Amino acid sequence: MPTQIIHADQRYVHALLHNDAIIVDEIYRRFAPRVKRYVCENNGTPDDAADIFQESLVDIYNQAKYKGLQLSCPFEAFLFMVCKRKWLNELKKKGRKGVTKDLDEQFNVGEDSFRDAEKTWADNEKARLFLAMLNQMGERCQEIIRLSMTDTSQEEIAGRLGVTYGYLRKKKSECMATLISAIKDNLSKWGLT
User: Domain 136-193's class?
Assistant: First the structure.
């Protein structure tokens, strides 16, 4: 998988993970008022906004802790994307009128940042799916794929596994085909197509 550049705002995710009171307070001061304004201008109440904001931070914390969330976009854009999704889902559940103010016009974050936030979300989900499917494979396939993802040469991997280079290439090809098939089958289930 290609290496992504981690955004400097990863510090906010780190603060949530490690309960850094000063930076978590900064998150609330900087971003909560904007979320409150957005939710209130889109058929919500201040209490709804507080709930959405808190739930979104918990989601980001969980993504970081259990899925290794790495931001490649500004934290603000990612947070607002999560808040917007949560609020739209809430409106659907309660049968309320939809959103009247677009998030892009509400916050001067910019379309590129939202596109980056969506990509970060999708990339993290795809990485999670890749690992989930890899972990369901047989031990030998897991070992071959994991070793192949390192800088180790194929000849060295074959030697380490006690197999011929030709066997390794054939087995790696079979394992990758199985993995790719499993990922494709699950992409739509995970909403990542």
Answer: mainly alpha
